[in-house]
Design brief:
The protein is of the alpha+beta class and about 325 residues long. It folds into 2 domains: about 160 residues, Alpha-D-Glucose-1,6-Bisphosphate, Chain A, domain 4 (2-Layer Sandwich), CATH 3.30.530.20; about 160 residues, Alpha-D-Glucose-1,6-Bisphosphate, Chain A, domain 4 (2-Layer Sandwich). The strands form 2 sheets. Strands 1-2-8-7-6-5-4-3 form an 8-stranded antiparallel β-sheet. The chain has an 8-stranded antiparallel β-sheet with strand order 9-10-16-15-14-13-12-11. Strand 7 and strand 8 form a beta hairpin.
């Protein structure tokens, strides 16, 4: 986590976030200058951002929309008031309507982003000024602080480069909050190929098997919003274990980029989770990211303790071998 300090000053009506990164200022600045890189971290997990406009110049404006796990959306805009390349960005930050125009029903803020070199790389200092204590409290109650911190927590992998961050490291688990985890896996194949293998039943039966010695007995899916799926596995002869399965519904589908589904174990009172899958192609490979939301911390700890991540790595490694053999 690159964030080193968060300070709220209720008298000055400000919130200041400081973060440090092991990259030069030019690399950090480039992540804010490029809308495709901004999209990879500006929205918090579960609410990825899409920038449809990004004119980073004095008088210019950006427009982005964050989409939640059930298709709900929240749009925002930036209006740039000062730019010192490599040093400072100042802007008006506000909520927007679907067409990118300022939403007069919602608060606006002033924001300053300062980029500084350090001996170890660079420092980023973001200060937000609120118009009143009521507006500050309103935005904090809406989850602005937590959302910003979770969004900035994604910057490391963007600055490092997705391949460098994940390739060759297997299945990575990050605990984002008491009820959220993020699982990432680099696959050496283009995104369309990975998406097809991830969502085609006859291919899924070849790799989505977990540990050796299991077979998939049921794989039915309708990956459209409102559709459902059913998976089931059983041990092969000589393998210990009990047959089990999962089922759920599709809340959001944006192929070949994103799919959000519910998941619950069939025939048990096990808690239902929300699984938010995204795929981002970079440098000839695909970073697969799965953000899982649990109903409570106890459920999260119980499910992680079952060896779930190890089983996922076995399946993902099998998927990668299958795609490389084709």
């Amino acid at each position: 986590m690159p964030i080193t300090n968060v300070e709220k000053d209720l008298d000055a009506l400000t919130m200041t976030i400081t973060a440090e990164f092991p990259v030069p200022v030019s690399r950090l600045w480039g992540a804010f200058d490029d809308p495709r890189q901004l999209e990879q971290f500006w929205g918090p997990p579960g609410w990825p951002a899409r920038f449809t406009r990004h004119d980073m110049a004095v008088g210019g404006r950006s427009h982005y929309t964050m989409t939640g796990p059930e298709g709900e959306s929240s749009s925002g805009y930036w209006e740039f008031t000062r730019i010192e390349p490599g040093k400072t960005i100042e802007l008006v930050d506000g909520f927007a309507t679907d067409d990118g125009e300022p939403n007069p029903q919602m608060p606006t803020m002033r924001m300053s982003m300062v980029f500084e070199p350090t001996d170890a790389g660079s420092r980023f200092v973001s200060t937000t000024w609120f118009n009143s204590l009521d507006e500050l409290n309103q935005l904090l109650e809406m989850g602005m602080e937590q959302g910003t911190l979770m969004a900035m927590g994604q910057m490391d992998r963007v600055l490092e480069g997705l391949r460098e961050f994940a390739a060759g490291k297997g299945t990575l688990l990050e605990e984002l909050s008491e009820v959220h985890v993020r699982i990432t896996r680099w696959i050496e194949a283009d995104r369309d190929t990975v998406w097809h293998a991830y969502n085609t039943p006859e291919l899924m039966r070849q790799w989505l098997l977990g540990p050796d010695g299991w077979r998939m007995t049921e794989c039915e899916m309708d990956l459209t919003k409102g559709g459902s799926y059913r998976y089931a596995w059983e041990p092969e002869e000589g393998t210990e274990g009990t047959a089990f399965g999962f089922e759920g519904e599709c809340l959001l589908a944006e192929p070949p980029y994103r799919a959000v589904t519910t998941e619950r174990m069939r025939g048990t009172p096990a808690p239902q989770t929300t699984n938010d899958l995204t795929m981002v192609e970079d440098d000839g490979g695909t970073l697969l990211t799965l953000v899982i939301q649990y109903p409570d911390e106890a459920s999260k700890e119980f499910i992680l303790g079952t060896g779930m991540v190890e089983g996922m790595e076995t399946s993902y490694a099998r998927l990668e071998r299958m795609l490389q053999d084709d």
